Amino acid sequence: MLKIPVRIIQEIQNATQAADLYRHLQAAIELEHSTIPLYLTALYSIQPNSNQEVAEILFSVVREEMLHMVIAANVLNAIGGTPQVNKPDFIPTYPGHLPLVQPDLIVGLAPLSIDQITNTFMQIETSIDPEDYPAKPVPFALRATEEEYQTIGAFYQAIIKKITDLHHQGALSIQPRTQVLNEKWFPRTELFEITDVDKATSALKLIIVQGEGMSTEQKTRVCSLNGKGKSQATQTSSPLDPQNQPAHYYRFAQIIKGGRLVPDPDPDPDPDPENPGRFVYDLNQPINLDSEKIYPLVENSKAEMYPEGSRARRLVDQFNHSYTSLLNGLQKTFNGHPDYLNTTIGVMFELKLQAEEMAELKIKTGPDAEKRVAPSFEYQL
C-alpha cells in the first residue's frame, strides 16, 4: 500500500484557497509519473514474441498512468495552477521512495519477475484492504488501515472534497484552462475537459478506481429491536474499473494467480452481505510468466555505470535524451499546446525501440557481467 502521511491529508483539509492545492496536485502528477519507469523497465525486459499477455497488462497500466498524469495536470490547470514536469528532480532516484508517500517502500528499476510484481507493483497499486480472490478453473460454458497513514485513494478523495468545499465557499473557481484532450490515445469517457466541480470529481475518481477498483454504497433494510426497519449503508467493493477492466492491483494479481479475473460462476452459497459480488482467477484463461524469456537487465541502471565512449553508454545517453524530450513535450502539452501530446507519445515508441537495442547488448566484464544494458531514466540537461 502506498502510505500517504496523514499530515498531507490534513494539509489538504486545511486549505483555504485554490493555491493551497497547487503543490498537492503537482505532487500527484509526480507520483503518477514515478511508477512509469518501473513498469517500462519490466516491459522492456520481456524478450520479443514472448509473455504477450503479461506485456499487454504492463502496457495497459503504463497507458493509464499516463492518463492519470494528464488528468491531474488538467485539474491543476483548471483551478489556476501550472504543471511543471521538465526539471531534473521530477524523475525520482532509483532505488528510492516514490514522491508524496511514506519512504518505507523502496522501489527500483528491475527486470520483470514474480518478486518485482508482488513486492513492488502490487504494493504500489493496492488499496487498504484488497480482496484475495481464489484461483480455480472455470468451466468454459460458464465464463462470463494504519492510523497515521492513508491511501492514495484517500489523498484524491481529500482533494475532491476540498475542491468542492472551496468552490461552494467562493474561494476556488474552475475554468477550462489549457485542457488536454486527445481521442487518438484516450477516449472522452476517460479524458475530458475540467469545466466544473462535477467534471473534476469524475476525473479524479477515475484515477482512484483504475488503481484500486470501485466501491459503491448500498442501502439495505435491517430490523431493530423495536420491530421497526431502517436503512443501513454498506460498502460493496469491486475489483473492476468503470470500463469493466481489473484495477491495477488485480491486473497484476492475474500474473501471480495464473489466470484472468472473471465473475465466479459458482459463488459461495452464503456470501458476505457486505461484499456479495465474488470473482475468481480463471486458470482456464491462463496468464503465466515465462521467466526464461526475460532479459537479465542491469538493476537500477545509471549512465555513469557504463564506460565513456562505449556503445552501452551511447545507448543509455540516447535513451535519456529521448526521455528528457518526452518530459519537455509533456511540459509543452500541459501548458497551452495540447495537440503536442501526439508528438510526445510518439517518443514513447522511440524509447521502446532504443530499449530493445539496449536489452540485446550483453555486458562482458565487471560486476554486471552477463547482464544486459538497461535504461536509467535520468534527466539530461
What would you note in describing this structure?
This protein has 10 helices and 7 strands. The protein has 381 residues and is mainly alpha-helical. The two termini are 34 Å apart. Mean pLDDT is 88; it is low at 141-147 and 216-235. The longest helix has 27 residues, at 52-78. The chain has a domain at 4-215 and 243-271 and 279-294: Ferritin, core subunit, four-helix bundle (Ferritin, Up-down Bundle). It is globular.
Mean of the pLDDT scores? 88
Rg, Cα atoms, Å: 22 Å
CATH topology of the domain at 4-215 and 243-271 and 279-294: Ferritin
**Strand tally:** 7
The run of helices and strands is: EHHHHHEEHHEEHEEHH
Helix proportion range? 40-55%
Strand content: 5-15%
What do we call the CATH homologous superfamily of the domain at 4-215 and 243-271 and 279-294? Ferritin, core subunit, four-helix bundle
Uncertain spans:
141-147, 216-235
Question: Which structural category fits the helices and strands?
Answer: mainly alpha
- Report the biggest beta sheet as strand number plus sense, adding barrel if it closes: 3 strands, mixed
Q: Kindly report the spatial arrangement of strands forming the biggest sheet.
A: 2-7-6
What is the CATH level 1 assignment of the domain at 4-215 and 243-271 and 279-294?
Mainly Alpha
Overall geometric form? globular
What is the annotated CATH architecture of the domain at 4-215 and 243-271 and 279-294?
Answer: Up-down Bundle
**Oligomeric state of the chains in view:** single chain
